[in-house]
Specification:
heterodimer, A: 509 residues, alpha/beta, Rossmann fold, 3 domains, six-stranded mixed sheet, 22 strands, B: mainly alpha, ABC transporter involved in vitamin B12 uptake, BtuC, 2 strands, globular, disordered C terminus
């Protein structure tokens, strides 16, 4: 990768100095600094809650800093509105793209600054032509007339980037742009970043993934707890040093997987098929085993898991728990059979934030804590107390709504909820997606502990180190089918990627 | 949230008391116990309907057909009474509950099985139910002299100093309080409204819970239908016209979140009483009924603003120092 020219005494396009942002009772940013240079990628690194989102919002005119200054080309500026930041050439591509689903690609690219005819009406032909030009310049083969909702996430990113280019952005902020992308799409994004660099854009790249930071960033800036910790050139820093700056302590990136003693088969799935989503899925899960499910986004892993717990119905297939065939037609029946699913999007699909902690925990276990439809409050509290204590949940009382807890504690409530059903099989869908390195280690620890206690875990993950580090065995899915089942020496990053991408063994060998 | 809701309810109690004090300065007789009991009695149908509506709103739906359901049930009861004057009241009550439940079932099935937005379903059934009243009655009124004395006397009969109508409302309040706080059914309503995506994974059938909410709302509307027609001793196509909006307003004023998942029986009852006091007090203190509408409207907006502010998160604790300071 080209890292030439870094030694030049280059002036930053945009410089933030001594930024303080105060919320009632909270200093979200406490005198932070950040510099972005033309033609370079600066990675902004920090754990969840370090203040990364706040700085992005400050840069894009959504928040006003209480103290400190923003210098554009050395001149102090203020961004009272998002429009002002846009006019100054600062644009952000968010985790969830903020585009308009019902508008066409061209309309999305030019919304707010569409070319006009001489009567002041939108010049559609011109808009389409220029959209085509911009899309071509980044090598995107998207039809400018297609409605945005018909595009995949990766294509939406391309539209967002085209929009950035259309307003002649000088600073492009990418907030976890790869979070929802598959391997191939990420590669395309990297190429695009190189294109933007070559055009002299200053890029702020926010990511949790160290491999990608080292791959594409030229510089780094680290925040911790709302404060500036350090900055420098990527070439001068190691992964360990960055992690240490982030967490303020050294973290060994060792997966805590204990060598498990595997017991009898707990769950056997044979020939699970769905008309459109997956075909002939079969495997055996043993007691105390962590079974990894790897695949690219859209390989059908979550879809299969959802049918296993009865949310969608398979057209064929048999599911056996122990020696008995079980028929699961609804999540309630899955819970009864001892299979629980912790969904990927825990914010949306996890806790009920307006409900007290104890009610959240007992929700899937209400059969046990009620008689004839009447709730037994004492038993509810007992169950909730038992499992929240096991997870070391910190809360003033079990009566407070989950919404008042911190993110980490909310997650504990969600996990306590599922453990309280005393499952035999727990399915964790992307258990560490989007969480910081410290919390990741805690989740991994916990997973090992569950397996050691005899619970069988199915872990759906798109992160190779996690699959490698945690699973006893890994199943690779591709295009709705099982591409490989890997174990022991066969389980390597290369084999995972090869099977997931569909590269045949001979070709790779 | 419990503490917050309690405080929200105590604010409502405070508002009602303040209103009463204000009215007492103009017309002391209003706050006499007998008159307050009369106000409660007058508000009873609104309380009964608001409790049904509350359940529906908790599950992120809305039932606009309650007033039409009330009117149709009331008309059927009145016509039955005219045709069979000897039919015992208990049979008429059962029929009213059953007919209301059937109309609620129709709403619920359309929402659950056909996945039609509740506002569209109940807007449609509202019109259909009103239309059916016209068809079965030919647009004619059923007047007091056609009804049997027993039929019209039931809601007015005094029991321990209060009319039966008031006692029915009190019974509904108690039953609903138990259902919402102490049964798995009540819990499922809160879960579905609080986070339908999460509720699915915990084994709750979201559509079915919404269906049940509509059945409850319909049943209570049916009950209110007989009581209404018997109390006012008249049945015609347009009775309780527009009353569904009062019912929704009572819920909103009572702190039932229109976004679902938040709200209590106490809140809905207080919301209904607040409207009841305004409706009964303004004429006696000589304020035009048009002001009454404006005041009800203002109360709704104030309640919504208040709820929205209460829901506002207070920002995140990010700095370690701030966390310790708390």
């Amino acid at each position: 990768m080209a890292r030439t020219g870094l030694a030049d005494p280059m002036q930053p396009v945009l410089r933030l100095d001594g930024i303080v942002k105060q919320f009632p009772g909270v200093r979200a940013l406490d005198g932070v600094q950040l510099a972005l240079y033309p033609g370079q990628v600066t990675a902004l690194i920090g754990e969840n809650g370090a203040g990364k989102s706040t700085i992005v919002k400050t840069l894009t005119g959504i928040y006003q800093p209480d103290e400190g200054q923003i210098l554009l080309d050395g001149q102090p500026v203020r961004f009272p509105t998002a429009q002002a930041a846009g006019d100054a050439g600062i644009t952000a591509i968010h985790q969830e793209t903020v585009l308009f689903d019902e508008l066409s690609v061209a309309e999305n690219i030019f919304i707010g600054h569409a070319p006009r005819t001489r009567f002041g009406l939108i010049d559609k032909a011109e808009m389409r032509r220029r959209a085509r030009e911009i899309l071509d310049s980044i090598g995107a083969t998207i039809d400018p007339d297609v409605r945005l909702r018909d595009l995949g996430i990766a294509s939406k990113h391309l539209v967002a980037i085209s929009r950035a280019l259309s307003i002649d952005a000088r600073v492009v902020i990418m907030d976890e742009p790869t979070a929802a992308l598959s391997h191939k799409e990420i590669e395309e994004l990297y190429e695009l970043v190189e294109t933007l660099k070559a055009q002299g854009k200053a890029i702020l790249f926010i990511s949790h993934k160290f491999d990608e930071i080292f791959r594409i960033a030229d510089r780094y800036t680290v925040f911790r707890d709302g404060q500036f910790v350090g900055e420098g050139l990527m070439a001068d820093v190691t992964e360990g040093e960055l992690v240490q700056m982030m967490v303020g302590r050294s973290v060994d990136q060792i997966f805590p997987k204990r060598k498990a003693v595997l017991g009898n088969p707990v769950l056997q799935v044979v020939g699970y098929s769905h008309p459109t989503e997956f075909d002939s899925i079969g495997f055996t899960l043993r007691r105390g085993e962590i079974l990894g499910f790897y695949g690219l986004v859209g390989a059908g892993r979550s879809e299969f898991m959802q049918s296993l717990i009865g949310i969608t119905k398979p057209s064929k297939g048999v599911c056996k728990m122990g020696d008995d065939i079980v028929i699961i037609r609804s999540p309630a029946e899955a819970i009864e059979a001892g299979i629980v699913y912790v969904p990927e999007d825990r914010g949306k699909q996890g806790a009920i934030t307006a409900m007290p902690i104890f009610q959240n925990v007992t929700l899937p276990s209400l059969g046990k804590t009620s008689r004839n439809g009447f709730l037994q409050m004492a038993e509810e509290f007992k169950l909730a107390r038992e499992y929240t204590q096991r997870l070391d949940l910190r809360a003033a009382s079990l009566d407070v709504p989950v919404g008042s807890l911190s993110g980490g504690n909310q997650q504990k409530v969600v996990i306590a909820k599922w453990l309280a059903t005393q499952p035999k099989v727990i399915i964790l869908d992307e258990p560490t997606k989007g969480i910081d390195i410290g919390s990741k280690a805690a989740v991994h620890d916990f997973m090992s502990e569950l397996a050691a206690q005899g619970l069988s875990v199915i872990m759906v993950s798109s992160e190779i180190p996690e699959i490698m580090g945690m699973s006893d065995r890994a199943i690779v899915m591709r295009e709705g089918r099982i591409a490989a089942e890997l174990e022991g020496d066969d389980l390597s990053p290369e084999t995972l990627v090869r099977h997931a991408a569909g590269i045949t063994s001979e070709a790779a060998a | 949230m419990n503490a917050l809701l309690k405080s929200r309810e105590s604010i409502l109690v405070g508002a009602i008391l303040a209103l009463l004090v204000l009215i007492a300065t103009r017309f002391a007789g209003f706050v006499a116990p007998a008159n307050l009991a009369a106000v409660f009695n007058d508000t009873s149908p609104l309380i009964i309907l608001a409790l049904g509506q509350m359940v529906v709103i908790l599950t992120r739906c809305i039932d606009l057909s309650v007033a039409a359901n009330l009117a149709l049930t009331g008309m059927v009861c009145a016509m039955l009474n005219v045709a069979y004057p000897d039919l015992p009241i208990i049979v008429i009550l059962m029929l009213a509950l059953a007919l209301g439940a059937i109309m609620g079932t129709v709403n619920g099935l359309l929402v659950w099985k056909l996945d039609i937005p509740p506002i569209v379903v109940t807007l449609g059934t509202m019109t259909i139910y009103r239309g059916i009243i016209f068809l079965i009655s030919d647009g004619k009124w059923v007047n007091a002299h056609e009804m049997s004395p027993a039929f019209t006397a039931f809601p007015r009969a005094a029991l321990l100093g209060l009319p039966v109508l008031s006692w029915v409302a009190i019974a509904v309040i108690i039953v609903m309080a138990v259902v919402m706080a102490r049964t798995t059914l009540g819990r499922s309503f809160y879960a579905v409204g609080g986070n339908p995506h999460a509720a699915v994974y915990t084994g709750i059938n979201v559509g079915k819970a919404q269906f049940r909410a509509f059945v409850i709302s319909g049943t209570l509307a049916g009950l209110a239908g007989y009581l209404w027609v018997a109390r006012y001793a008249v049945a015609y196509v347009d009775i309780a016209g527009g009353f569904e909006l009062d019912v929704v307003a009572a819920c909103v004023i009572g702190g039932i979140s229109i976004a679902g998942g938040i709200g209590t029986v106490g809140g809905a009852v207080l919301g209904a009483l607040f409207l009841g006091v305004i409706k009964n007090a303004l004429p006696v203190v000589d304020i035009s009924p048009f002001w009454q509408l404006a005041i009800s409207g203002a109360a709704i907006i104030i309640a919504v603003v208040f709820n929205a502010r209460a829901d506002h998160s207070k920002g995140r604790v990010i700095l370690k120092s701030a966390e310790h300071a708390q």
